[in-house]
Amino acid sequence: MSSEKHQSATPIAERIEQFLYQHAQMYSPDIFLLGTHYREGRSDRTTTKPEIPEKPSASRNDRDAVKSIPVVGEQRSVNHRAQLLDEFYQEIKDCQKCKLAKGRTHLVFGAGAPDARLMFVGEGPGREEDLQGLPFVGPAGQVLDRMIKRLGFERDEVYIANVVKCRPPQNRDPQADEVEACFPYLQRQIDIIQPRYIFCLGRIAAHALLGYKAEMATLRGRIHYYKNSKVFVTYHPAALLRNQKLFWATFEDMKLFRKVYDQEIGDKPPMETPNKRA
To answer: CA-to-CA distance for 272 and 23, rounded, in angstroms?
Structure first.
């Protein structure tokens, strides 16, 4: 084949590969048979992997190696990361990139450990968060606090942020243009913190971070990837306030995370199963 023909065929092959990749995300990863070219080289928001490795393997890619530590850029000290986060907050605190800025009291940047292994990502601030300038401090935040505690963590050792940093009116879902304007801020936070694990709280956070839309039934119960972070998806704590039946499904998502965490790090006490009245 001539060089000219090869160049014209390459975009077609890539489009076919992308179609099969997206099809696998929406239906079943078992049909994705193309290897890692697109997954590793084409997007930060990557495919679902339902299998949990039981033992580390030296031959696995760094993304999958059980003992790998996510690195985006250079390794950074805790103090350096804290400094970078503070500088970034100062840079964006007066942001006017979308219409949400007009109605905010405070930009809700994020809070927690600058070197957190585990990061939680919600959709956007509510009323209390807007008033205080801190994420998840209202009723949904109390639910999240209990989730964090049951996972074996303290709130000050995780990091909590949202896809959009300003409160949508009447707590409506963030609109596409608002997510598009604000998402680079979340990307920058992840790049600074370099979390090993990310929990997406709700479909909007999952759609934004993973880069494709799917129902919660498809998103939950699997391991996804964003750059070098393993991503888990569960219901938003506010949804649990509206529908307590979602608690047990959320608990299954938490158990999946702890299974992975215990295999890879294993420094937390066993997670207790709550009784039916918890």
So the answer is: 37
